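[step 3/7] inverse_fold.run input=structure_tokens len=650
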């Protein structure tokens, strides 16, 4: 019974992580899609201003909401409390805080105290804070209801509409539809509208109005919830000092343009934090629900071991691809950010570690302990920024961020384990960090590894070492959810075999660098032919796409469709069916339009349409006749008659 309950705990953590991953994946894609838009349509100074405004909003939100969302998740998940009362109190406190902010902001704007940072954006700042607070409250309550699928769906909705409005404002509508020089307003407005739609979506899907009852307000429960959340206000603000002081101090010492570079440097490292958030949200729920379980300490130990291994692999993978990804995703004027991104990637490891340890305080209702550790973080970050920015410029904020998170993690690792005494694999931690620091040193020494293939191979070898060292911890947790046969097959792969496979992979990549990726081309073409021989679309289609991507990356990106056109010939020769003829024709048209001349692509497409009408004239005639006779009833044309007509035309 105990074993079944333990398995259920891991299964719930895994299933919640999977759901959050689906929801968060869209936001991760959004980050990648928005980077080229922002770095193309905003100047470095404008991107710096938007970063400062969003940081100000992030500072204000904990104050106006009194971090009541933390109480919502903690008491909403606790079966001892009524969810309706929890949500009602959350709405009252959030509304009161926003009302006070609505009174104070005009006064601040009128006096000009914060003109350097807020400027003429006070109204949009209020709307941004308002919608972000309400959205956070409502989506957090959905998590407290354990409707994690709806929470994930809300993340997808927010992502889709943020991308939609951003593309609409910057790329579709006239540049002056809000007036000249309104790039910052478009940035804020896209997020505000997205938050509004997401809030409405969650409200109607979960029927949240049923959980509001202003007639019966439990004042004692309000006091209990505030007693829990209020100590988290300074704690969150101090964490924001750690996260935001970089932007403010960079703007103060070096100007908005330099802050725009720093903001771009954060974009790709944030991918690590985004991926961790998928796990972190699920873990936060499990930490609360498992706080009183008998096997709690062992549960925490296994999950933290998985947690650190996942972060080492993620951070190492991001370091491996940071330079080529920056060249593709970041605008030319922001490319300097590649000097600072690796340090920020490394800092995310300890940022996520501190978040994990902080969940122990939340689950144990020891929120006051978060205050001291957050204070230490803020003091170190601000102090090092003041000391280092005038001396070493933009290298200072990433270094201060690493130092502050590392210090707080050490303090929390000692303090939080007094509440939950679980073990930490220090040997793995020291070795993995040593390897990642070596990768970091290489990336900081050489900012263009593509011109130094041997150094890049060394970075790859270091990453593969981290991967092998930490793969077991990740797979061990996943074994609990896999079928026995699959789990046993994976378990039979020894560490020695993993090392040999990793070495073989590294040698293969080395050969590709030396032979200009000819082995990779041969492998992918072989994959296409093998997939065709086995009639497996799951093999030859991905291999075709990878071939086209590799060809485009090594030549020019507009030749991507040329690679696809070349690969489409293989299935066309073998199958000679209508869908492959059509696919090849489409590839040809796109290739001609993109790489030769748009009008030539259109002309060839018209010729193909005429040829299609001539070849399939009998089929078209049958369809038209049946539509006329049966009132446009598509089902009236049987599949048999369709096949007969097509066979006659061959």
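[step 3/7] decode complete -> sequence:
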């Amino acid at each position: 019974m105990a074993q079944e309950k333990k398995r259920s705990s891991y299964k719930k953590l895994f299933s919640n992580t999977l759901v959050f991953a689906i929801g968060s994946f869209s936001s991760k894609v959004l980050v990648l899609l928005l980077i080229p838009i922002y770095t193309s349509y905003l100047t470095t100074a404008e991107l710096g201003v938007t970063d400062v405004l969003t940081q100000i909003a992030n500072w204000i939100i904990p104050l106006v909401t009194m971090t009541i969302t933390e109480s919502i998740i903690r008491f909403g998940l606790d079966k001892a409390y009524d969810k309706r009362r929890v949500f009602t109190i959350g709405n009252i406190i959030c509304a009161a805080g926003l009302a006070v902010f609505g009174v104070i902001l005009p006064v601040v704007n009128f006096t000009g105290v914060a003109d350097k940072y807020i400027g003429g954006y006070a109204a949009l700042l209020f709307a941004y804070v308002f919608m972000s607070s309400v959205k956070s409250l409502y989506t957090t309550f959905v998590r407290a209801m354990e409707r994690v699928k709806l929470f994930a769906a809300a993340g997808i909705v927010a992502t889709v509409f943020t991308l939609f409005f951003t593309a609409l404002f910057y790329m579709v509508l006239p540049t002056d539809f809000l007036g000249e020089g309104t790039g910052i307003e478009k940035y804020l407005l896209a997020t505000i509208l997205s938050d509004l739609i997401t809030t409405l979506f969650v409200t109607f899907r979960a029927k949240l109005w049923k959980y509001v009852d202003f007639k019966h307000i439990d004042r004692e429960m309000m006091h209990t919830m505030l007693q829990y959340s209020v100590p988290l206000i300074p704690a969150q603000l101090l964490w924001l000092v750690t996260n935001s002081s970089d932007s403010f101090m960079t703007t103060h010492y070096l100007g908005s343009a330099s802050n725009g570079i720093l903001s771009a440097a954060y974009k790709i490292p944030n991918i690590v934090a985004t991926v961790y958030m998928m796990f972190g949200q699920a873990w936060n729920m499990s930490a609360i629900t498992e706080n009183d379980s008998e096997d709690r300490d062992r549960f925490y130990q296994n999950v933290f071991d998985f947690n650190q291994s996942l972060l080492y692999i993620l951070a190492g993978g991001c370091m491996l691809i940071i330079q080529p990804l920056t060249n593709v995703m970041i605008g030319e004027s922001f490319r300097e950010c590649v000097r600072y991104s690796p340090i920020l990637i490394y800092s995310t490891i300890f940022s996520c570690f501190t978040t994990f340890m902080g969940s122990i305080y939340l689950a144990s209702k020891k929120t006051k302990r978060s205050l001291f550790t957050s204070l230490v973080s803020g003091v170190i970050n601000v102090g090092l920024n003041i000391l280092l920015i005038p001396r070493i410029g933009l290298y200072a904020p990433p270094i201060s961020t690493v130092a502050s998170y590392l210090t707080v993690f050490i303090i929390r690792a000692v303090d939080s384990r007094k509440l939950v005494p679980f073990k930490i694999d220090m040997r793995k931690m020291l070795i993995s960090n040593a390897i990642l620091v070596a990768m970091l040193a290489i990336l900081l020494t050489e900012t263009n590894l593509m011109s130094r293939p041997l150094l890049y191979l060394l970075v790859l070898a270091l990453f593969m070492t981290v991967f092998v060292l930490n793969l077991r911890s990740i797979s061990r947790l996943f074994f609990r959810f896999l079928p026995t046969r699959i789990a046993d097959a994976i378990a039979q792969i020894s560490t020695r075999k993993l090392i040999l496979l990793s070495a073989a992979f590294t040698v293969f990549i080395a050969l590709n660098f030396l032979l200009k990726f000819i082995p990779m081309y041969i492998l992918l073409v072989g994959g296409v032919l093998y997939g065709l021989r086995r009639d497996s679309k799951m093999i030859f289609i991905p291999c075709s796409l990878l071939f086209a991507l590799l060809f485009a990356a090594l030549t020019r990106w507009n030749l991507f469709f040329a690679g696809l056109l070349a690969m489409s010939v293989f299935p066309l020769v073998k199958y000679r069916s209508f869908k492959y003829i059509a696919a090849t024709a489409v590839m040809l048209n796109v290739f001609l339009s993109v790489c030769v001349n748009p009008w030539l692509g259109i002309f060839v497409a018209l010729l193909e349409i005429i040829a299609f009408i001539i070849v399939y004239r009998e089929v078209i005639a049958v369809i038209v006749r049946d539509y006329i006779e049966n009132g446009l009833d598509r089902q009236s044309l049987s599949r048999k008659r369709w096949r007969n007509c097509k066979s006659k035309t061959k």
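[step 4/7] annotate
The longest helix spans residues 2-41.
Residues 518-598 form one domain.
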